[in-house]
Amino acid sequence: MRPISLTAKAFGPFRDQETVDFKAVSSQPLFGIYGETGSGKSSIFEAIAFALFGKPLSKDLEDLRSHFAQTGAICEVDFIFEVGAHSYRVIRRPRQIT
User: How far apart are CA 41 and CA 38, in angstroms?
Assistant: First the structure.
């Protein structure tokens, strides 16, 4: 599985919409995700796990929505990845508490 793009909206520490474009490293066999403490590195993996499996790695489903998001903002993960010659897109939304 090779990640292509991940967009998270109102997810974890991401108040609005954040996109991680993996295309720049897609030809590399190994790459790193790094940043300051609290910058959202682990949330990238949480978002990928949620997209693929419908549940996060270490949080409850109710805790996925950003506490910083505007009222009414939809929590959503949009993940595009490749397996072999095939591309897949998964869009998931946890249950929204209104």
Answer: 8
What is the rounded distance in angstroms from the CA atom of residue 55 to the CA atom of residue 29? 27
- The strand ranges marked E within the chain are 2-11, 14-21, 76-83, 86-92
Is 92 in contact with 76 (CB distance < 8 Å)? yes
- CA distance linking residue 76 with residue 64, whole number of Å: 9
The model's pTM is 0.87
Measured distance CA(33)–CA(6) in Å, rounded? 13
Structure tokens at 12: 């974890």
Which tens digit of pLDDT belongs to each residue from 19-38? 999 998 878 888 899 889 88
